[in-house]
Structure formats: C-alpha cells, structure tokens
Write the structure tokens for this entry.
Amino acid sequence: MVNEEQAISKKHKILAFTLILLTFVMGTSEFVIVGLLTEVSTSIGISIATAGTLVSGFAIAYAIGTPLVTGLVSRFPK
C-alpha cells in the first residue's frame, strides 16, 4: 500500500512538472514572436503595428480562453 501511495505521489509530481513546463512555454510564446515581429510583418505584407495587434489579440484570447476551456473540459470523465 505504501508503494501505491509513492507511485501516485511520483505520478502527481510528473504531471505538475509537465503542467508548469507547458504553462511556461505557452506564456513565453508571445515574447518569441515579438522578437521576430519585423520579419513576420514584412513576409506577410502587413505593418508592424498590425502584426503587434495580432500578437496582443492572441495573448488576450489565450488569457481569457484557457480558464474557460479548462473549466468546460474538466467536467468530462478522464
């Protein structure tokens, strides 16, 4: 019984680490694209301001949508 509790604890640690890593990666994705904003805007033929607005829109949609989708999906059985 102790081994099962240790296995669950280890599994939870792995899941928590994965969640933290994914949150970090998704949270920093806007910073990566901002560094390439000039190249992106030139390649798709829009102004830098418009490209920046698109990045801001993505960040806002991500910040608002993630908790909502998580709440909706958490109701379904795993």
Q: What stands out?
A: The CA atoms of residues 41 and 62 lie 21 Å apart. DSSP finds three helices and no strands in the chain. Residues 2-35 form the longest helix (34 residues). The helical segments are 2-35, 37-44, 48-73.
